[in-house]
Amino acid sequence: MLGNFTYCNPTKLYFGQGALDGLKNELPKYGKNVLLVYGGGSIKKNGIYDKVVQILKECKKEIFEDAGVMPNPTTEKLAEGCERAKRAKADLILAVGGGSVCDYAKALSVSVNCEEDPWEKYYIRFEEPTCKLIPVGCVLTMVGTGSEMNGGAVITNHAQKLKIGHVFGEEVFPKFSVLDPEFTFTLPRYQMVAGIFDIMSHLLEQYFSGTDDNTSDYIAEGLLRSLIRSAQIAAENPTDYEARSNIMWTATWALNTLVAMGKTTDWEVHMIGQAVGAHTDATHGMTLAAVSLPYYRHILPYGLAKFKRYAVNVWSVDPKGKTDTEVAEAGLAAMEDWMKKLGLVMNLTELGATRDMIDGMVKSTLIMTGGYKVLTEEEVRQILTESF
Amino acid sequence: MLGNFTYCNPTKLYFGQGALDGLKNELPKYGKNVLLVYGGGSIKKNGIYDKVVQILKECKKEIFEDAGVMPNPTTEKLAEGCERAKRAKADLILAVGGGSVCDYAKALSVSVNCEEDPWEKYYIRFEEPTCKLIPVGCVLTMVGTGSEMNGGAVITNHAQKLKIGHVFGEEVFPKFSVLDPEFTFTLPRYQMVAGIFDIMSHLLEQYFSGTDDNTSDYIAEGLLRSLIRSAQIAAENPTDYEARSNIMWTATWALNTLVAMGKTTDWEVHMIGQAVGAHTDATHGMTLAAVSLPYYRHILPYGLAKFKRYAVNVWSVDPKGKTDTEVAEAGLAAMEDWMKKLGLVMNLTELGATRDMIDGMVKSTLIMTGGYKVLTEEEVRQILTESF
């Protein structure tokens, strides 16, 4: 059943070829000072930077830059961005990039006018913003995180060796996001397939939890089927617009709160994957890929009915003449086959991990309680060992 | 592929048991004068009226009433409502009822301060509102139309024998809606199953169009599967909370624009069904039920691949050893079986129609161009004849 919830997602999305023109509708709604936030500069090579700047100028905006946002944005970078935003008297933060850049822009939004240390307030005490927010808009160049239509903002504190995500309320969601699938064409294949698995993992983390019948799981199944099909096509031809547009749209809906409405969720794969990331600095989506199957095979007996349903409804496994366990295992086998064909990393060795890191990874793994089995430390160790 | 689009749906939803308490969060955002809009008074019998009024009083609101909204709200009623809203200096229109009441509230929202005849401006010339809008909130007591989270507002002009829907932009969407599945428990079974088929029809109208591969169709398949399952349970036990909550949530997402994003749509079943309604005054969902299978069987050869996909993905038809046409037909046969078990009206005779009405119904049927076959007048006649 659907538990009680509130749902609100006010982000306006401009989707498709030429979607960047949507900026011309949005920019006039804000004051003239725009803080343009981006990462390592790939947007300068692929021409997106020039296009954005041209529209900002057309709309008579004063442009202030905050470049160099790293894949895991840090508290130091956030402090620097706050200074830049204050000096610029920013009326709008425009993020151009992937999930990290969008996350960082939202963290900036709630931090610029914050009268205390934002890390302490939002990431240690998990309080909600009480200061004046600076509105955020996004131009997405990489898909996977759903950050373009949610309130998530992950920040890393190196001094404290902590990487924490705060999921803010709808007042922090981007006011608008531009989603042009062609902007993702130049992404290296490794990043593309890692992003695809991140999307799949978001859906599965929310799907593999609970035993009730609720609409959210059916929507997730639809999104999974679309993702599986389009991923296969994109892996063969990364500039297939149909496939890339479906992947982009699926990514948004995989993590904009819809498929979690009224149900419990797991997120243990992300916890193990992030522990791997903390010890290897490997690409996020690949860490999830390396640990997912060992984890799901481990918890399968505890969530058998759902794994059977996953096999039949998502992977079209024919249940005739098979035991429930055989059906469920056939679903995971089909998933493994699909993952290998995509070229995903299927073990921790390929991510640069070594077995002597296992102890540390176990210690870094947060235990969640929404999945089919609350793991013991020994089980986390076993799953990590099976991921080599 | 996903065509270009913009998406924005800012309505805040309070869903579940006790969702009415959400009013206490929302009401303080508006001025003190509330126009309470409702229908024939069933909300006074089932206690919802008293609950709403109590919260309005707790929130120190001045309550003005606009009751008697009919199943097909008229231009006369709209004019009366505008007068009431003006006299009340309404700061908020609170609709308590089903789709008609929500539709009417939105029509009021754009009409109260309209300086010309709203019928002419919005329903004949299809212009967008330029006047100050009055915000709308909804408390849903009947599911099916999705009006609680979209911009649709159908109004009937009896003098001109026209019933027209205007789909307004997001500024006219309800600011908030309260969805408590228990509020739908007292609905008579006939209305419940008619509403369920209306939801299914909304999904199918958007699904049976186009030959490309897009995520929206996969989401629709998920919603259809959830609806099919929960409808069967609700038909046996109308107070099964799990089933009714899933039906309510599916109804919202079936017609809040999501499953139409980036794709073409049909809506011919609604056109034929509305023509039947104009000549019989039969319940909307039942008119759709009576004409759907003859229509879909007629267009099946033109959209064979999609009907096959529908059979396999939605009705779990096993395609092995069957021709494409056999698979597609087996899907519609499964749908027919499900409809009969629900107790839906399967022919026009039961709706009070007679064969001498066919000519008039043909004339009243608008021909749409997004489906798999643009119908000729002769084909509409044939489908209507087969619906007896």
From TrEMBL, chains A, B:
It holds the Pfam family ADH_Fe_C. Residues 10-181 form the Alcohol dehydrogenase iron-type/glycerol dehydrogenase GldA domain. GO terms for cellular component: cytosol. CDD domains: BDH (cd08187). It comes from the Bacteria. Residues 193-387 form the Fe-containing alcohol dehydrogenase-like C-terminal domain. Keywords: Oxidoreductase. GO terms for molecular function: alcohol dehydrogenase (NADP+) activity; butanol dehydrogenase (NAD+) activity; metal ion binding; methylglyoxal reductase (NADPH) (acetol producing) activity. SUPFAM superfamilies: Dehydroquinate synthase-like (SSF56796). Signal peptide: none annotated. The keyword Oxidoreductase applies. This is Iron-containing alcohol dehydrogenase.
